[in-house]
Amino acid sequence: MAYVPGYDHDIFISYAHGDDRDWINRLVERLKPELKRRLGKEPSIWIDDDSLRKSRDYRKEIPSSIESSASFLLLCSPSYLRSEYCVLQECGAFRGSIPVKRARFFEESFRNEQFVLRTLLLPVDNNEHWELFSGVSDISFCNDAGTFTHGSPEFEAGFRKLTGELMLLLKRMRNGSTPVFVYPYHPSPSLKDAHDALSAELAAQSFRLLPDRLVNLSDQVREASLSIFLLGERYDETADQLTGTASTGGRPWLTWRSPASQEAELKQSGFISHLEKLESATKTFLDTAVPLSRLKEEVLALLKPNTLVPQPSSEKPRVYVICNLHSRLERENAGRIIYHFRKEFEFDLPDDPYQHNARLAYADAVLLVWGSSEETWCLPEFQTMVQVSRRARSKGLCLFDPQETKTAAMRQIRQDPGEIQIVEQFGQFDPQRLEAFFSPIRRGHAAGAS
Length: 450
Known about the structure:
Layout: E1 9-14, H1 21-39, E2 45-46, H2 50-55, H3 58-67, E3 69-76, H4 78-81, H5 84-104, E4 116-120, E5 138-140, E6 142-143, E7 146-147, H6 153-175, E8 179-183, H7 189-204, E9 208-210, H8 217-223, E10 226-231, H9 237-247, E11 253-257, H10 266-277, E12 283-286, H11 292-302, E13 318-322, H12 328-340, E14 346-348, H13 356-362, E15 365-370, H14 375-388, E16 394-400, H15 407-415, E17 420-425, H16 435-449
Parallel strand pairs: 1-2, 1-3, 3-4, 4-5, 8-9, 8-10, 10-11, 11-12, 13-14, 13-15, 15-16, 16-17
Antiparallel strand pairs: 6-7
Helix pairs in contact: 1-6, 3-5, 7-11, 8-9
């Protein structure tokens, strides 16, 4: 599990295969223990190797690993700038992930963050490597004579700077994630499955798990946006104290009786009865009848995962485009629209199911793109768009090559389109057909700017 919640890897290391791999390997092997010492946990570092390129489809695996990495460590050299894959594919993939990363965090300090550290392994003529993520400072491991030798004073100075900046970035990202307190920290066997499943779900949704240290537990309860107490068969005096803190802290807290609590020792039975009857406006008490699956649903509901994630600031109006991302043809259709209108509008896609309704509710405009997908996909999306989108200046349904086999869905849609602009695209894509959808957005944006 990565140090930064919500990511598979903390650091993606991008380098050119023409450079000194032995030197790079030694750098990575030193990074791991040093960052573990300073973070308290070994970070997950992704770097490819020869076996990856021989045995697996690296052209699919590398972009996926880039998107699921919290930060990007760029090892620059003349060879790197001549590598089409490094410059266009790896740097391009990470650059595309930056707006999504910025949107995860609420702090102002992340507004212009690039999540990139750039090192220099060999001198580059005219500093052309600055074009890769401009504005990022170099951490140099070379001079005109070549790459610094491991262990040399120059290398050690660069290494200290690199590890220091990596540590600060990863800590900021971790601390910028919403904290959730899950107790007990070391669950008994009867609670372990529930604890592990709940923790994995929260981490996958980018929540930071507390406690992450075994001191100041009460302060960590006060820090958490939600505190969760899993109750087993044994009495825990610390849990008694921490639920008292949670009940007076003003933030939501939840207790769940595991099936094992039905055989609780007497003191634990009395504690559970106390919690059930305790008057607290912020408490949620779940009995043994509530299964683990519903526990996770209750937790996510309390955390309000559909709360709007702040979007990167832009002078352009934002259009939320709903399409079936699992269909290549549907992605191509949506891509035609996005590409044609890219200079006037910012486009957002349904890449996070937990933010879907929030993005619908707050989008400047919403466009549903439908072509080859089944009616069972389109109808629920259409109904949700009609019901949820609140402030959209324009709502539209763009149909590519409408087919008679989809008459049931179209009949229902045309019966009550409301304010929905229905656009049909036959054969070659014609952007003029979409003007009825985009014109109200332009007018509304111009009026708001004046």
